[in-house]
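User
New here, help please:
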Amino acid sequence: MIIDCHNHPDWYGYNVTRYLDNMKQYNIDKTWLLSWECPDDEYNPAYKKSIPDAGLPDGPISFRRCVSYAEQYPDKFILGYAPDPRRPDAIDKLDHAIKLYGVRVYGEIKLRMMYDNPDAIRLFRFCGEKGLPVTVHIDYEFATGSKYPRPNWWYGGGIESFERAVEACPETIFLGHAPGFWAHISGDDQYDKASYPTGKVVPGGKVAEMLNRYPNLYCDISAGSGANAFKRDPEYAKSFLLEFQDRILYGRDYFDNVHQEVLNSLDLPEDVLAKIYSGNALKLVPLS
């Protein structure tokens, strides 16, 4: 079985028909279908050619689209939803979505806020009470060369803010994701200078350190950032995946097959691949 732990409805022009065909093409049995609720002025306008709900209050990727997919194909999609923790009704909205629609994941949170914000901590703890893993997107502020409308598009406040949230919510499972997380597979200083760092992994990376320290931290390998973290140093990637095989989840955040190609190139034992492809996801979100 293969479970994609990170994707979105009507993303990059993939309606439900194209979506299902794509899953079949790459032997994906189920997908965690995540919303992205974010104020319009907090994301790059370049996304507007790829997102379905640009400019709408529940956009850029609304939960209602996730519900539509899941109601049509309940055997294929597992519902995720991440209302903005800064909204006073966030916990109520999530609670209702759990009761009414069977939401199983809080994700994706991708906001210009510190993830140890007290409102976020309260919501993360609620997720822990309800058994929902939390998928977070982290990006650093650094010089992009852009001037307008913002010089950069940071999310989450960096690895330190995320670590404080993980530590403050020991009963909540977190999945680290995106450039600002995966850059820390290495102990070098590229994390706040490039979205996709290059070169051999330097010992002392924060990701491994946090995995050793916090049993409630897991890794979502989706998007270019996850693939890049492994492709930049395949030898280290194999040792990392072997060491943390019980806390790595396969995901895509797109519709290509690069992550399967990378994983299958590393000569990992079949039992390890089985955990990454579905076993760990099923541990966090069992099939009901």
